[in-house]
Fold each of these.
Amino acid sequence: KLLVNRYLKGEIVGEGTYGIVNKAIDTKTGNIVAIKRIRIGEKKEGVNFTALREIKLLKELKDPNIIELIDCFPYKDSLHLVFEFMETDLEAVIKDKHIVLSPADTKSYAQMMLKGLAFCHKKWVLHRDMKPNNLLIGADGQLKLADFGLARMFGSPGRNFTHQVFARWYRAPELLFGSKHYGSAVDIWAAGCIFAELLTRRAFLQGSSDIDQLGKIFAALGTPKPSQWPDMAYLPDYVEYQYVAAPPLRTLLPMASDDALDLLSKMLTYDPKARITAQQALEHRYFSSLPAPTRPSQLPRPR
Ligand code: ADP
């Protein structure tokens, strides 16, 4: 049967926080798509704001490194969001033991991730949930930021976000200290963690609780000195930690080039105001020095 006279519904490909995702054929274009079904709440308030937010944001975000929202429609008790179908995600690539990532491959994935971020930050949109399984990879090898379900506009006065949104391992230190006025720098921190994970094939900072997450960050990068991050002591959940000196980053990532380590250290800078931006990161010499990033169509992918 045809959904809204257009989509031929196929198998279930996944289940997310908000609902089931099906594969489908768009009979209008012949393209394979993913349809995400979001239950419109049982609550009498009716409208699912998370869904509406996601729709409004995505419609305005069109970029080769952002997942495209093709269509959306209500059907039965659910809102249906139609996205371009994506073959796999970065988590699957990182975890696949048969895949060898060359320095050029890692550079290509890092560049696509930062291009997507630079685009949404330019439009004043935060992703807020950057992690490898939210970075989808298309049949053409392009990496695209997905799952803007938690994203929200920022830049308006009185912004005040909840901080418990990020998958813990990718959470920036200002979020762990309870910052409520954070900005695009939280996405850069997460992108830095993902970059390190691409280099080592292992999640970089694996905290088992929020407190432990800070401990893992400090053990890897040293406890931040007030001179490094002047606003730190004023954050709501700030507590003083026993001083730990930073080991050279090189010891944690022996395989990384000097350029890669320099960029990584700038993405994992404690003070969010001093942290590199996505646009600045793209202009870093890591991306202009050899090897050139692998063309997306040439990237290794899980079979
Ligand atoms: P969550 O809300 O838990 O972050 P999603 O609802 O975005 O997850 O997606 C759930 C699952 O559906 C994903 O893990 C993935 O396997 C699949 N999926 C989501 N979007 C797509 C897509 N565009 N193409 C193919 N599979 C997708």
Amino acid sequence: MAEADIKKGLAGVVVDYTAVSKVNPETNSLLYRGYPVQELAATQPFEAVAYLLWHGELPTDEQLAELRAEERRHRALADNVRAAIDLLPLDAHPMDEVRTAVSVIGASDNSGSGSVLDAAGSPEENLERSIRLYAALPSIVAYGQRRRRGQEIVEPRDDLDYSANFLWMTFGEEADEVVVDAFNRSMILYAEHSFNASTFTARVITSTLSDLYSAVVGAIGALKGPLHGGANEAVLHIMSEIGSADNVVPWLDQALAEKRKIMGFGHRVYKRGDSRVPTMKAALDTLIEHYDRPDVAELYAKLESEFVSRKGIYPNLDYPSGPAYNLIGFDTLTFTPLFIASRVTGWTAHIMEQTASNALIRPLSAYNGADERHIEGYVPDA
Ligand code: ACO
């Protein structure tokens, strides 16, 4: 096989159709079911975007109310999920904690026949499972952060919408509207991004006719890596290392001399800037003003301008979202679990799409190992 025929990292390979979202690197645009993500972030609650990803259309008022009611019904942390989390060491990475919690939810779901032959589930079962996970994840993420801080669990509030309730369960106080709005925008921006590594992982698992929970657990594993979702956590580590705008130049000189990757910059698909960044940067700016933290703005701007001018590599969504989540008060370790809480909507939309027109995903490889050889003294049976 010619070297050129091997598409390492599947770069540039189109493996299937999807109607869930369209990433257009030429125009730096991202559409969810046809709608520009910026328009959705400016006008919709996250619940409506979840509905859009699952159903293909924005909800009517009645449909939105129904989804909200169902989401509220499934919000509370189940006893066995809490017990499983409590068994984990306090220094377990929260991504492992959330992965474990999703696994427990899956193992406890007795809908369906329980036979492996029915694991893939019907469209109705999978929609129900998707809503259940989407509703349960905020309480898992919030509980994780509170547990690590030695704080009591905060129960969900039925009078608050998704984003406001998420912040309530995490911090035990009602967040200001400007904070809820910035958080809601981040949830929308993270929700979906075509065949990224975690979504593709979910589709590969689904393609074997495995179950939705297994596919989400696998996707969480893929998201954890710093080349993917883990970058929002890594951005904060970098910003803490740098400390202040004055230190950007010497820090960057050394980091580039050591050939370090600068987290929060670069993207496999977008080469001239990530379509989601301007919207998230605007949300970050409102938080910077709200919390009166011009130092964050200075560091952000200095690192961006220095790195872009030296390398021509632009920020991705994790660059503004990392400091935004920090300002809101989330622990750095909680950032990637927030990504899960959002992206579970996109993952499950893809899982349902894959199930509806399935083909087992099984690529080929070019062998470059040892030539054929044999066990010394082995004599085949006559
Ligand atoms: N810092 C320093 N150099 C970089 C960076 C970066 N952030 N990104 C790319 N480069 C350089 C690479 O070192 C490489 O240089 P070389 O050709 O001299 O070896 C060149 O640019 C191409 O980089 P690749 O990693 O091969 O490009 P690819 O398209 O595979 O990578 C990726 C995309 C993995 C996102 C990369 O840009 C990266 O590692 N960024 C940092 C991690 C990150 O922010 N991930 C978040 C992704 S977006 C998201 O999940 C929301």
